[in-house]
Amino acid sequence: MSDMQNIQASIAILKEVKDLISPSNPWIPVMAAVLGALAGGLAPIFVKLFEVCVDRRAAKRAVAHQIYAEVSAILEIVRQRGYLEDLESKKSVMTVNSASNFYQVKISEVVDPLYRANLERLPLLDPGLQTKIVMFYRFLNALVEDIKPGGTFNTSGATLKGIDQFLAIANQAVAIGEEIKSQIAKQFNIDE
Question: Is residue 52 in a domain?
Fold first, then answer.
């Protein structure tokens, strides 16, 4: 075949292909343009939604890990320093109406910096876990108020009833703290 025949054969093939792909419906190009614009416009929205979900999951994990670390540290300090055992022994030597025993522990003003830093992000966690976390820290702050310098136990003295109440709240706080640790460890795969 000569070059001229090759060119003519190529032109014939192109004409046939053009007839095959030319739209029979004039709305097809319009629909293609609309669908293309829609897909192009929605793609960034889906990407942004994906990014928001990833960021939310990372923030949730960060809050949980920080709360876990702080609760663990608080519980360990209470255990190692023997605060509850010390109060139990004070209680055992007190008379029923005794109010002359003073009990004071030097505690920093802020015992819950990670909790305070994450207050606005607590709603990222499950509602049941949020409730336990808030209860734990409210109990902790109430207990600190009793034993810190200027607190009830060292201004007016620790009574038997006061120590009983303190120990009941403290034991409940420890139990809630353990539940928080367990729930976070389970939910976020933390080795205890």
Answer: no
